[in-house]
Amino acid sequence: MSEPRPDTxxxxxxxxxxxxxxxxxxQTYSEAQAAxxxxxxxxxxxxxxxxxxxxxxxxxxxxxxxxxxxxIAGGAASxxxxxxxxxxxxxxxxxxxxxxxxAGILMGLVFGIVGVAVPYAASRGKRDFTSSxxxxxxxxxxxxxxxxxxxxxxxxxxxxxxxAS
Length: 165
Hints:
Layout: E1 21-26, H1 29-41, E2 49-54, E3 57-65, H2 68-92, H3 97-123, E4 129-136, E5 139-144, H4 149-164
């Protein structure tokens, strides 16, 4: 077993807070992305840059009412697709391809419906709605390593001045 060379960087899987000096603050992610793109276009070493979402909030948008009909239809649809996939796999290894596909779809329907009906019944109506959740930032800061921060800030500021005039 060989030991790692001392000159190689160990990749850390540990999540750390990003470090660096702020070089720009933007209202939207696309503005922060455009600033980093500007730095990249000017041959700035963008590996020294990090975009940080600040003032994060979780937003859950309610998209509809959940009923037994919707639960069963959703389970049936996802089960049928999965069953079709397995049916095709079985058909590739069988001489009776049509029966294999039909059997796969029927088994997928059964397992799909049971797989969603049991948890929905167990919830006893405590969550009778569908929703989508996303994380939204109040602003996006672009930060840079201290050694290159002044240069990055000046490039971004120069672009902002040219854009304003």
